[in-house]
Amino acid sequence: MVKILSIKDSNFEKQFKILLTNRNNLDTKVVKDVSKIIMEVESKGDEALKNFTLKYDNFDIESNGIEINPKDIESAYKKCEAGLRKSLHKAAERIADFHKKQIPEDIEYYDKHKILLGSRWSPLDSVGLYVPGGTAAYPSSVLMLAIPAAVAKIKEIYMCVPCPNGLINPTVLAAAKIAGITKIYKVGGAQAIAAMALGTKLISPVNKIFGPGNSWVSEAKRQLFGRVGVDMIAGPSEIMVIADQKNDPRWIAADLVSQAEHDVFSQSILITDDKNYANKVISNVDSILENIPRSDIARESWENNGLVIIVEALKQAEKLANDLAPEHLELAIEKPESLSNNITNAGAIFLGRYTPEAIGDYVAGPNHVLPTSRSARFSSGLSTLDYMKRTSIIKCDETSINQLGPTAIILAESEGLKAHAISLELRNQGK
User: Fold this and answer.
1) In this structure, are 139 and 94 located in the same domain?
2) Is 328 a catalytic residue?
3) What is the CATH number of the domain that holds 225?
4) Catalytic: 420?
5) Of the candidates 358, 172, 355, 350, the residue with the CA atom closest to the CA atom of residue 259
6) Is the same domain home to 157 and 247?
7) Which is catalytic among the residues 99, 262, 328, 368?
């Protein structure tokens, strides 16, 4: 049974604090398992990939090849049903349009000392994309990960996708074709992350890894961060819906289930100021759960992690949202801006009754790879900027170094860094 809390309950604060902390616990077994996998890939390379892929995916990459043939990608695209292919192209177009608007501008100017200052943006040399392929296949994630990379003009874009029993969803390949990916490796799990981070004979190392995955994938990214860049350490998907009683309870119920069906660890939260309405939503959740293919997964998620919070006034939901920092936040109320303007901690905010989270997953345009597990307090959803890096530019001439150098000398000496001071003094001799 889904948990129901009321802000009026005497123990609400205690229960809410538990909610804030219980999503961030590391599984020690996963940590140890991933550490072993990384060490195996680092020491044995492709042999380790072969063994792990055979063990976890029941697929022999040695005899079947580790890379997907470009002809198979092209074939999957051509065989894709026309309506689906058109939808993928439409989504790709909107994602590209939005991410093109995020391309940053270089800065260059002379300050009052005639020192040239600036910053220059450039794309990363190479990126590795991880697309889940286990309990569900996500062609939408292919588009969301690859298109910003293309917009940023990255030259080397690789993708790893698990292929249980050697099978891969053809729509994933079609999406890869549309997004311009040509190198796709049939490797998944922590071993795929390790291969892209460290490199093997068959998989070149990349500068940064992108994409969500299960606990092992996330842990591998966490352990390898620093040796390779990562987009974020993603946890299970989550949604918070703030809704009033004027919504059709079936709509809100469907929105909650839309996250629950991702994973048994996903979390769906409803905040409303009407207990009777909350009960209507709960009843409709139960009805929907009976009629979807992934009902077992969604039901376990809803019953174990689902939550309904009853507030006295919807205004109280602002603080709850900022504290929880949800990945997805729906404001299904009459004037959503009245709350959204004061909510700063959310991966993406969906305004109004006609903006379900699902529209953002596919065709709205902004990226659907978003911070989870309260990390929206300090991080953002994926953008074009994540595929680029900024380099500072500084140029002094003889006059400007003489003007500003003495100040820097004083600061260097205050830190006990004499060589720094000498470096400046030598250029200021006789001045």
Assistant:
1) yes
2) yes
3) 3.40.50.1980
4) no
5) 358
6) no
7) 328
